[in-house]
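Researcher: Batch entry, complex prediction.
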Amino acid sequence: MSLITPDFGLLFWMVVIFGVVFFILAKFGFPIITKAVHQRTEYIEKSLREAEQARIEIERFEGDQARILEQTRQQKAAILKEASDERNALITKAHDEASQEASKVLQAAREQIDSEREMARRELRSELSALSVAVAERIVRKELSDESAQKALLDRYVEEAVRDQVN
Amino acid sequence: MLPLRAAAEEKFDVSSFIFGHISDAYDWHITTINGKHISIPLPVILIDDGLHVFSSSKFEHGAEYGGYRIAPDGEPHAGKIVRSADGSRPLDISITKNVLGLLIASAILIVLILLCARWYRTHDPLKEAPKGLAGLLEPVIVMIEQDVIKDAVGPEYRKYSPYLLTAFFFILINNLMGIVPFFPGGANVTGNIAVTLVMALFTFFMVNLFGNKHYWKEILWPDVPLFLKAIPIMPVIEILGMFTKPFSLMIRLFANMLAGHIMLLSVIGLIFLTAAMGPVLNGSLSFVAVLFGIFLDCLELLVAFIQAYVFTMLSAVFIGLAHPQHETN
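Model: Structure tokens for the complex:
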């Protein structure tokens, strides 16, 4: 039982067979497969890196977008606030102007009324004096006979007239 | 496959049954039906004063042919072709059972790998995922190359990966063919010391032919105290180590595969051994033997892979050790 003595014939054939197998596989077999696998590994690594970069870029874009949105929102709020302030100011100003105008008109009306009342009073007074003169003429014509009575009467009239005037 | 009738009639010889299966032979015995051996005769090639080529069927039933015979048990070259006159061996490079087994396994391996390589030639691997055979073999190739060869050999691994991958797949396919119990398989190829010796020699040359100068310095003039080098203890140990490493590879693969075959055959032999001991014992032991045989077959599948893996990994480690990076300190 030559289990542990290598047989020459088998040694010879094993060298030949393994040599041929090794030659064929090392030339036409494994290098092609491993080269392709390496290429693909590199390609996958490259793709992964690119995908990572793209992801980072997208994240940056999303950040920008959020910032721009926030800015726009703030601007909108500011513009709205400005508009409302302006409106309020306008209203207040218009109000003030209107009330000034109204008071001016009132003032003018009051002054006109005053002046017209003064004029009316003056007219009334002149008319009254003319009327009094006429009345006095008549009375004087009738009571010219008594000199003292005339004088007393005249005084009374004058006094009355002055009192009326004061009142 | 087994001399059933003979086993039932005469005493079943376990050791010749087992050794008949694990040793090399000049013909490939397929089965025996009604005491008639059915085997494939293989060419005998002898170099003895010229080339003698004839069929091994000439030696049937212990016949002599052309001055040669197969030595019977008890002679120094039992089971081998010897000269009839004095029982000495001629130079014998016959295509034996193991050689044919190697040829068949190698043909299958070459076809498989070249078909796989063809896929990569005809397709763009950057655009298509490998399908079929390439899809089956690529993960194995990548696993061996990236996890075993790259880690063990180091940065120069691309140069050695064709050899190591060839060794892995060569051993794997021969191991697997050895488990198949009928014709194209069943030859105990990787459990033959000549085969593992050649594998170990290839690794030996791969390690030592391409070792860099730091490797040779570590062997011949290692960094140890001078007296260990002056009386060359360390160099002798290191040079011995050069040979023990592949020797261990040879023995490990040989012993593991041989042991697997012997275990499996012993369990199966139990059925025939107990055939004469009555139907109860024979039946129950057959049942146990079949269960155990299934278990051992599964184990052998695992061992077939593990031994190929271990041989490749250790070869890669030895190649890596022959390329030490120069330590800068």
